[in-house]
Write a structure and sequence with these properties.
Largest sheet: 10 strands, mixed
Strand content: over 45%
Bound molecules: copper (II) ion
CATH topology: Immunoglobulin-like
Number of helices: 1
CATH architecture: Sandwich
Structural class: mainly beta
Number of domains: 1
Number of strands: 10
Distance between the termini: 38 Å
Radius of gyration: 16 Å
Order of helices and strands: HEEEEEEEEEE
CATH superfamily: PCu(A)C copper chaperone
CATH class: Mainly Beta
């Protein structure tokens, strides 16, 4: 029922146009996993007309999804869950390897390259109002360049 309700609100968000703050998400991709691997990252770029914060991510296909940050603390690369990722107008916010990412956890089956992971991203605006955006992250090979921009031949 919760899932159903989420998707109904997404339909409403998508149906609304100029009156709503526009959030656009591009180049969403997930890193493929090998059998036995329990977690992987999803990366994307986010732009918004108004300041918003990415507060939550979920997927009908995956039990545990968290918003994470990767950071070097005392010389060691560490990963932790964050309360939110700020998206400011006029600036593209990047979720990328080594930085912010959406983490898919407790995976029950490998995620293979070429498949798609449906995700529901929840944003909160300055007034505390939530809106959700439904995306599909394209699964890419573990060895793929971390950014399409890094290679003119990425495909
Ligand atoms: Cu993580």
């Amino acid at each position: 029922m919760n899932v159903l309700r989420s998707f109904i609100s997404v339909a409403l968000v998508m149906g609304a146009t100029a009156a709503q703050a526009q959030i656009s998400i591009d180049n969403a991709w997930a890193r493929s996993t090998v059998p036995g691997q329990k977690a992987t990252g999803v990366f994307m770029t986010i732009a918004s007309e108004k300041p918003v914060t990415l507060v939550k991510a979920s997927s009908p296909a995956i039990k545990t999804v968290e918003v994470h940050e990767m950071k070097v603390i005392d010389g060691v690369m560490k990963m932790r869950e964050v309360a939110g990722v700020e998206v400011l107008p006029g600036k593209v916010t990047e979720l990328k390897p080594g930085g912010y990412h959406v983490m898919l956890m407790n995976l029950e089956a490998p995620i293979s390259a070429g498949s798609k992971v449906p995700l529901l991203l929840t944003f909160k605006d300055a007034a505390g109002k939530e809106s959700s955006v439904k995306i599909e992250a394209e699964v890419r090979e573990r060895t793929a360049p971390s950014s399409a921009k890094a290679s003119g031949h990425a495909h």
